[in-house]
Amino acid sequence: MKSSELKGFITGLILGDGTIDKGVTKRAFRIKSINHDFIHYIGECLKKSTNFKIEIKYHPASYRKGVYRKSYSELYIKAHPYFNKKYNHFYDDYRNRRITREALNWLNPRGLAAWYMSDGYIVRVGKKSGKIVDRRVELATDRYSERDVEKIRKYLYETYGFKTSKIRRGNGRYRIRMSLLSAQHFFVMIEPYIVPSMKYKLNLEYNYRPNWMTDDYYELMLRLQSAETLTDNAEGQEIV
After folding, report:
1. Given this model, what pLDDT does residue 24 score?
2. pTM of the entire structure?
């Protein structure tokens, strides 16, 4: 990756679950995920493009105080001046999360994909009952102020034409929900950068084609559904 591509990628990671540690001239970076492929993908991308000292640690599943915690992997980058230079774009003086307009402009499709893999999801309402009655594509922006959420929404619309709404959470925070019309364009754009084991996050799971669905997304959805069917059929079988 070129320096501008790297900057966009790391911006997406920080907007998601990535964190920059405290420091004076150097700051460390870390990110965790229950999807181990995602963490190793980040490591591979950064090793090819930087001189960062990277460690990846696996944490097994555990019980703590009667609560089950899934296994997860953590990527850690030893303190580096790169993150000190970027720090104030993502944190205020009290270490509250923030995002500057300049940092948003660093984003690119790879960075948006990293953000979505880290902190985005589809809610398929009614799936457990056997009939999906609604689909919601959201980015978890709970740690950001309402002002910053509006800033992100404005960026997504002005840069890519993505229409979104602001969803109030019970704790006074907000999440960004994409219109399904925009979500399909978003998915087609980021799909090349999504690790295979997370592509389920791109599948709206329609069993018919809505009249608003584009050819590009319809083909992607069918491809994803076909891949999931093959995976389901392979479970429990020996593969030689």
Report:
1. 83
2. 0.91
Average pLDDT over residues 135-139: 97
Structure tokens at 164: 């979104």
Contact 98, 90 (CB under 8 A): yes
> Is 79 contained in some domain?
yes
Residues 6 or more apart whose Cβ sits within 8 Å of residue 124: 132, 134, 135, 205
CATH number of the CATH domain containing 13: 3.10.28.10
Q: Residue 110 and residue 114: Cα distance in Å, rounded?
A: 6
Same domain, 44 and 101: yes
What is the C-alpha to C-alpha distance for residues 101 and 141, in angstroms, rounded to an integer?
16
Residue 234 lies in a domain: no
Domain that includes residue 157, residue range: 119-229
Task: Provide DSSP, 163-209.
Answer: -EEEEE-TTS-EEEEE-HHHHHHHHHHHGGGS-GGGGGGG----SS-
Residue 236: inside a domain, yes or no? no
